[in-house]
């Protein structure tokens, strides 16, 4: 499983404050902690409150790269904000995200080509997030086909079935699992399947437990990557153990330590 750290997001108060006060030491500490805990990529989202989102994204990317050298997932709904992040990225970035909306898809495929970035597509479009597995899969297929048409390798396409809070739609998790399976068989090699895990537990009382179980269920159904909180040790332990039980690496008594050392 590829872990994408979720903690550099203007949704969090400490990040919002650091952006406002241009205090890069706070951002750099969050970046280092996530990488030390096993994040192999970091999600970067300026959040809803930044006054100048383009400038904030550029500042975040530059600050993070001074501290760690993992690739970044440039997370924004706005293409100009994404482009500001891509311009500053020293390594191959992940564009997070496009949807199936044609104009947006065209614009973001253009950016992926211009900057040699990978592309993450959400299985939703201008009409919102479809309820049915078939409709979500169809949008995933549209994004994948458009990327291939433009010459992006399938390997660079990541698809997100879109996870909604269990509190607001209890049938959502079943749809997510089924959509993961359907997206995996769209092509060979398959696109990478990714979710924003913490969405599932928003508003729940016992968030860590809900996140942990949802992650394991996703992994069992073919999930390749997740945007999550790598500082949640029990979540990381559950992920590593799920990979073990699916025979992705060899058992030894100290497998949790061994897995972490090998990262
Ligand atoms: N798919 C993709 N990208 C994504 C998401 C997705 N990026 C953003 C998000 N979803 C994943 N990241 C988070 C980060 C934080 C939370 C959820 C998802 C979260 N935050 C607390 C909350 O809302 O309760 C904030 C708590 C606080 O204010 O301190 O849960 O799905 N491709």
Task: Furnish the topology, listing elements before pairings.
Blueprint: E1 2-9, H1 13-21, H2 24-36, E2 41-45, H3 53-67, E3 72-75, H4 79-88, E4 94-98, H5 102-115, E5 118-122, H6 133-149, E6 157-160, H7 172-184, E7 192-196, H8 207-220, E8 225-228, H9 233-245, H10 255-262
Parallel strand pairs: 1-2, 1-8, 2-3, 3-4, 4-5, 5-6, 6-7, 7-8
The structure holds (6S)-5,6,7,8-tetrahydrofolate (THG).
(6S)-5,6,7,8-tetrahydrofolate (THG) binds at residues 6, 9, 11-13, 43, 45, 75, 96-97, 120, 160, 163, 196, 198-199, 202, 227.
What does this structure look like?
The chain is an alpha/beta fold. It has one domain: TIM Barrel. Helix content is 48%, strand content 15%. The protein contains 10 helices and 8 strands. An 8-stranded parallel barrel has the order 1-2-3-4-5-6-7-8, surrounded by 6 helices. The longest helix has 17 residues, at 133-149. It is globular and about 45 Å long. It starts with a strand and ends with a helix.
Give a brief outline of the structure:
The protein is α/β, with parallel strands linked by helices and 263 residues long.
